[in-house]
Amino acid sequence: MSNLERQAVPSTCGGRGFVVAEPVRELLSPRAVRLGESTEVRRLLPNLGRRMIGAWAFVDHYGPDDIADEPGMQVPPHPHIGLQTVSWLHEGEVLHRDSTGSLQTIRPRELGLMTSGRAISHSEESPRSHARYLHGAQLWVALPDSDRHTEPKFEHHAELPVVTAPGLRATVLLGELDGAASPGTTYTPLVGADLALAAGTEARLPLVPDFEYGVLCMSGETFVDGVPVTPGSMLYLGCGRDALDLRAGSDSGLMLLGGEPFEEELIMWWNFVGRSQEEIEQARADWMEGSRFGEVKGYDGAPLPAPEMPGVPLKRRGRVR
């Protein structure tokens, strides 16, 4: 998934200085962003008040959109460094192509996981013949310094572990939840889980006290630790919890995102996660010159040009504004 904003704003994130060490209930409101011609997303991270949850550095929620008579998602080839992209669907399909030669249709509750490492480019689009509705989330995971120059790769996992309880079905995307571990590759301690709750369900999820957590509402209304969370919003929970109480006011879908607070300070600009302005400038130049990021074959359209660099220096700072 690309950040398609033509006036890309640098985002400084990471570091432990602003991690909330105790449980909190901080409701994050989304910002509407256009993604191509027919898709609008709700951006939860980076947010005006909070930039990361563990290594999760970017969260977009979109849909459900009726695309029966629309092209749907159309994201041209674009570059990434220093991160993993996570594609997650509740409805519809997304066709992924990348410069390693991967070609994969991602369907609901299948994991599409791309590790950019040192450099990769990819495109995402709704297939020509597609389902009526498109609904999902796109997320980025920041890579630690020790792994951010690794070779790029793409993983597709159609079968994922599931944790069940009365009225609750939790699919583990990444990391581990209640003893169930995802096959997806991770580079820092984290968890991502999709939670489906039936109306009236009351459940208690086990958590890791050293992790910080957030809950994104995909559909329905759920009370998370007593706070009503509606579609397109996210509740930041801080650290220090060993369990989380959920109560579904209707059939609901949530995403639980958590992880060990990310210690390194980062610069995130456009589709790049780096450590210095020079690194970001070099990545932009390489993309515009057609080097380093490889070629996405088969996409019907031109690659996405990079925005102009901002007129202010890019600096690494803390996790919140």
From TrEMBL:
Pirin C-terminal domain mapped to chain residues: 193-292
InterPro entries per record: Pirin, Pirin_C_dom, Pirin_N_dom, RmlC-like_jellyroll, RmlC_Cupin_sf
Annotated family: Belongs to the pirin family.
Coiled coil: none
Name assigned to this protein: Pirin family protein
CDD domains referenced in this protein's UniProt entry, alphabetically: cupin_pirin_C
Segments of this protein annotated with the region Disordered: 302-321
Superkingdom of the source species: Bacteria
Ranges where the Pirin N-terminal domain occurs: 41-141
Gene3D superfamilies, sorted: Jelly Rolls
